[in-house]
What does this fold into?
Amino acid sequence: LAGGLRLGGGFRESREAVHMLAVFVLGIVVLSLVAGYFYINYVRAEQESPLMKGVVVALFWSETCPHCLHILPYWRQLEAQQPLAAKGVRFVDVPLQSVEGPALFHKYGVFETPTIVVLRNGRLVAELPGVTGDSASELLAKVERLLSESAALSAAAPGAATSPPSGGGLLALPLLFAIGLATAFSPCALPVLLAYAASGRRLNPWLCGLSGFVGAGVLALVVALAAGVVVRALVFLPLLLSALLFYAGVLSLLGVEAGASLGRFASMPGCLMCAVYPVLAAQCSLPVLIAGFAGVAAAASPLAALAFAAGLAVPLGLAAKGSTALNRFLERRGLGKVSGVLLIVAAVVIAAVYLVGV
Amino acid sequence: VPLHWVGYLVVLAELAVLVTVIEALAARKGASIIGLSSRGRRLLFIASMGFVVFTWLVYLSRFIVLDFTLKEVAEETSYGMPLFFRIGASWAGGTGSIFLFSMILAAIGLALAAGRIDDRLIAYHGGIVLFGLLYVLLSGGLERASGLPSGLNPLLKSFWLYPHPLATFTSYAFIAAAAVAYAAERRRASRIMAGVGWILLSLGLLLGGVWSYVTFGWGGYWAWDPVETSELLPWLILTAYLHGMGWLRDSDVMLYTSAMSVFFATFMVRTGLSPLHSFAGSTFADLLLLVPAAVFAYPALKGLPRFFSSLWRSLTSRKPVRVALAATVLALGYSHLVVFASLAVPAAIHLAGMEASIPQGRSGVAYYHPLLYPVLVVLMLATPLCMLEPATWAPYIALAAGTLFASVLMVAMTVRGLLVWSPLSTTMTNAMISFALPLAAVAAAAAIYSLFLNAYRRRILNACRALIHIGLAVLVIGILVSGPYAFKQEYMVEVNLKPGHAVDLGGGVKVELLGYSYSLDTKSYISPLSYRNTLPVAMAMQALAALSHIYSMEQRALTVGYAKLKAHGLAGLVDLEGKRLHIPAKAFAITDHTELHIEMNITRIGLETFGGGHAATVNAFPVMVASMLIKARGPLAVNISAGTPLTLDFVNPLVFKVDDYTIEVSEAQLHFFNIYQAMAQGSPTPARIRSLGNNTYLASPVTLIVTNGWIKHGNKTLGVPIQLSTDEAMYLSVKSSEAALQRLFSNPLVAELLKTGRLQRIADEVMRGRNLPLPEKIPETAVLHLKLRIIEHGRSHDVDASIRFDANGELAGIHGLVVKVLPISIGPDNIYVAIYPPTYPNQYGWHDLLLYYLNKTLPGIRDPAKRLGILLAFTAGYLVDVLKQNQQGALQLLLQAAENLYNVTSHYHSIITSEGLRIAVKRIPMIDLVWAGALVMMLGEAATLIAVSASWRRRRGS
It folds into this structure.
């Protein structure tokens, strides 16, 4: 309890930090809304286009080019027959005079019409500008030669190349566990728990750990399920997660604690206190806590929610046991700096994973 | 120059203001000229300001009654103009806009005089009105004029003629008044006027953007046009002032700079350096606008050193809010300097008589964006500090670090290609958007948070300020996302809209043309005679003179040359157009010794010279246009393609008869295009070549030029190439390449003038400096009415739209077509649709509405000379850009085009059914945030002003 009250001196600073944190979270939400809206309506609309999947042979043409109009009927014939479907090759055409036309011409650097472009998962592998032909079979022969020259078919099986950024798959579980741990190591809440245990009131370590697990787990599950519904709109959540962790790291390095004193929780029954520990921890670990929930939301899976809750529960059990080692660990000076650096490293790792798209 | 009587009234008003100012100045020195008491001086001020307002009303009345003897009225109105535009026209010109400014300033003076007013304010305020009126007098708009109206610029003839200019000039007046009120130590009046000035100036900028967006049809709202940039100039420094006033010592420097920028902006409009807002070229009177600019620059420069030292003290004070505000002031001040330099330096060079251009459009983006981007970053980073006013740095540092981290992440995503904002922009531009967006989002969040926090704490003033900054952040987000899409025309897709077909515009929106009709406005007329000094009319005059000259020259070539050809025995071979001749398959070899069999259907035979030169004789070659079947013995080593001609070497000469000529071909060149079409249009359209398999090709149209062979006629035998005299060659060239001119001579309009010898007389007169014959008045406007159905996600609604064509735009060389712009909102995005009339499918591309207009108007002009004059003037106006590029052949081109225009227009029928309307469409993301953000900013400042004056009243009450 004394550990919790120790922080009362920096109250104003701490309240300003809460305002700033609220602003930051709100800002990231605004950013996610703007970027998410744009992403869904502009970026993904393009990514979901048939050009982005598998091996595609596209004829880029223009209404104003007579040669294009000459070969277009033959090409349409190929599109109708799809003679290379067995090899996983699709025939499509991209007119310049269409809503997405100019952007696609620009993207693949097509300056001449007609041009045949071979794409694998949306990436250009070969092109044949100024193509001519007087029959579908002649065009097909040219396409087959182009395919064999470019070795578009020989490489590995098709998969999404520029897939929407993901939360990082398997890496997410240990990461969320770690964030749970970091949340639990709230420098103002954990000492309260330790003092509570030391005061001799009955506090079963297992029960406390389990209560914490259930408390955090229920919350996290709700977040995970809710996120599952709206996850399509939340493609930028990993960004939110890493930015929040980075922010928390800087706060920790500067020795600022974002939170208000919630000492009255100390009078609660033990199990209840363990169950609401995430709220209690928010006193000083609010950014990390939000990052944890954001991570759960990003992964949008119950497993991720449980990993996060488990990470949170372990220190609770230890604290309930009244571990002196834990106590000593917490009283170590420079802990804030170490955790600050760790949080920043975690932020950078998440960002890197997000960007590389593991 | 004789003044119109309104001009003398303005002279009187000017004298009244002068007396008022001198008396007030004298009173300050303890003297007096006409011995008025302080109350008397106040009454004199009220009287003179009232007189200025009265004079303006009289000036306005001249527009309402369409008194064309006043030059400004003649230049901006037309016969039968509706009242709405007559009133608006009063501020559409260079004189009228400053008169409006002076009148508003005088009205503000009246309002100020309602309270306490001292001699200093009388002298200062009267002083600016004095300058304004002096400009009005000297700018030439009040001179007496011929009484012939020119009509209003077509782009101005819309609802938008009111809001943008009124907001802009009212704001200019308020800013100038705020500066003098501050100098006269009327601080509170100055604060309110600066605030009102800021709101109206922001409104003016916004409305200018909206006007551009809904009028020009390219989808942009800002293009760094020098006049837009000029209006931004006072906004930047006035915004800096609003951030510095009250706490930063000597911040009034910025208010004086704002007033200086206002006059500088009005001067910039008149330098003619802007393509969008050009009034007449700069005159001596325009330089006069630099005098008040200099007057305001004086106190600004004098206070500058002290201002900088106090700014420096604030920047180094380490108090978060103080530093943030000082950084904002510094950033805005710096941007003012950048923008000012970009305008003032070219303007100075221009005044010195040298070529200069201001960065604008794409060059404006390249110049301003890198220089001003850091300002955006500073402003966005400073906003959370100003909004939350923390006492310590640490929480803010974490916020800024987290935000910048998010920015770096976004940039990384953009560079990786995961989040590309504008695919048609550079990676750099996309990275700049990505970097700024998190900053703007956090600024928005800070402002939103601050709004609620301060509203909760009942700190109304702070809540109002938060509202302004919410608007700012939303505006910035809107600009970041929509900017490249709005600016770049490359995003435009052109589609055709034919009646009865629904066209997909993307985003789930379809449009359908239900019906259309045309009308000619029979109420409004303009006088073409008032366009004597414009480029199109000048070109039409030259063309008319050239027409007569060419006629006399070509008639000689045609008569003499033809006589010689006849004697030569070649007259019958010159141009056998439409002579159809089938030539069965003949064997011949081509350069790689492959044997070919050709079979051709000849559609035209002629004799042509190539190259020419100044030699005494010219080589001529028989030429045949045909469709051709080519069978090769075995695969060809050469490509049969449009680009490369084939040299044909006949194994046995190809012999055939045309009329009484026998042509024997032993060597020829085969070109895969129609040479006559290529000569007429300047560029060849490649032949269609179809491969029939089995080494057989069908090509059409091709041109066979006989390079070696014989021509037999009667008992004469001529070797190819045929040697022709220059007269004969001249005849050939007139006959083929100038066929269009020949048609012009036989055009009924011209033929009539030629027959009576009138064309030659008019040409002589024009050469001697007389004017082009033009009708006294012609209808001003033709309109194409459209009934459109917009279908959005299954729901449909009908829209009436109209496309307008104004004759005066064409005559002035600025084009008379006003396209219809139809922005369709989808969430915060717009589907931007610009609808154009179809263009006639020939090389000139006349638009349908021009053809309709001339079809209805030309027959009404009795005198064929005037009809020809107006036809040439319209042709020159329509093709003015092309003609400016082709200085060499401009007149020839103009004459040929006029002939074509006459023909097309006299056989006019609407081409909408066959060609369809032209629709340019693009989707612009989040454009509505731009308008919404700007509006919220203005609302916020208005609320702030109300809160400020309420707090003053409370303080006075207590």
